[in-house]
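Batch manifest line 329
LIGAND: 2-acetamido-2-deoxy-beta-D-glucopyranose
JOB: complex structure
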Amino acid sequence: MASSINRMSVVLFLAMAAAIMLTTVHGQGTRVGFYSTTCPSVETTVRSAVQSRFGSDPTVMAGLLRMHFHDCFVQGCDGSVLISGTGTERTAIPNLSLNGFTVVDDAKAQLEAACPGVVSCADILALAARDAVVLANGPTWAVPTGRRDGTVSRAQDALDNLPGPSDSVESQIQKFTDRNLSVQDLVTLTGGHTLGTASCATFNDRLFNYQGTGGPDPSIAADFLPTLRSACPQNNNGAARVAMDTGSQNEFDTSYYTNIRNGRGVLESDQRLWTDNRTGPFVGRFLGLGGGPNLNFNAEFGQAMVRMGNVGVRTGTDGEIRRVCSAVN
Ligand code: HEM
Ligand SMILES: *[C@@H]1O[C@H](CO)[C@@H](O)[C@H](O)[C@H]1NC(C)=O
Ligand SMILES: *[C@@H]1O[C@H](CO)[C@@H](O)[C@H](O)[C@H]1NC(C)=O
Ligand SMILES: *[C@@H]1O[C@H](CO)[C@@H](O)[C@H](O)[C@H]1NC(C)=O
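JOB STATUS: finished
ARTIFACT:
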């Protein structure tokens, strides 16, 4: 009897230790409602800052979502993308939503007035990205908070760590698995391209002389090529922008997956997700085409965003709470 109780307590102890280890090993320690007593207005303040900007410029949704992704992939989700100045991450990313930066700055100013020194810039960005998706008629999800801000922001880190539009599927998978995100997370999160636009500079190489062939990328659908070529004529300066989800760039939906299935992907990295046998089945499952149980894009996206939002986070006494989001204290 005594020994079985002992055994039970050992088992219990091991289970608890394992649970504690799991939470620390994944660098988490963020939780939903982290500010519920210290700054209860945080969610409504961020939401209204996003909403008011959205009224004058709906492209801000895509900007905020992309900024949170970039933040998480470079130095972890620590607000480092928001720091301005020569040689910072911000300077490495072509035309990263200026609009998005000012939304975060607005929310931060209001929160500093209400509860000084409490809410991190990294958390404001994570909340704003969720609110942006909601405004685009996408899903909502509970955002764990408690991230702290980092103090390092280097352009070179952004260049080294961010996936690029010509990346192979192999390289995309590697960049996600390096951050404990799965192949399914890759397909789900790049579904963020249901919103927003890409500049011609990011896919010009596909249109006229793909890999020195003197012709277009053969994976572009024949009836889509003229659309891309007229938006981005030969020898353009790269600045014009094209919806990544043709016909539905302001609506959060699965038509991005339908487009890549039909050879109507704009970025080469996106188009490849359909043809590769590791990623293609997930695209098929979002579209209910078989290859495994159907996947619900809205539900999966929220869960994957929570996982992405935990990449490399600083919690506890690590990092700082920045006073202004564009500069370290
Ligand atoms: C393999 C991964 C990815 C690659 C290679 C990639 C690449 C790109 C590129 C090249 C652009 C166009 C940039 C420009 O020309 O201004 C873009 C835009 C965008 N990306 Fe990604 N991306 C990836 C993953 C993600 C993820 C995980 C998200 C969010 C969850 C995301 C959200 C966005 C959004 C919303 C835009 C539109 C921005 C706007 O219209 O202002 N991307 N991405
Ligand atoms: C990924 O998980 C490993 C082990 O669980 C952990 O050591 C590492 O810090 C995590 N990486 C990131 C970027 O969160
Ligand atoms: C960024 O925006 C500026 C001004 O709108 C434009 O001149 C430039 O070509 C853009 N760069 C890219 C890579 O889209
Ligand atoms: C994908 O195809 C390659 C080459 O045909 C094969 O070796 C590999 O096992 C396949 N992988 C999956 C996940 O189906």
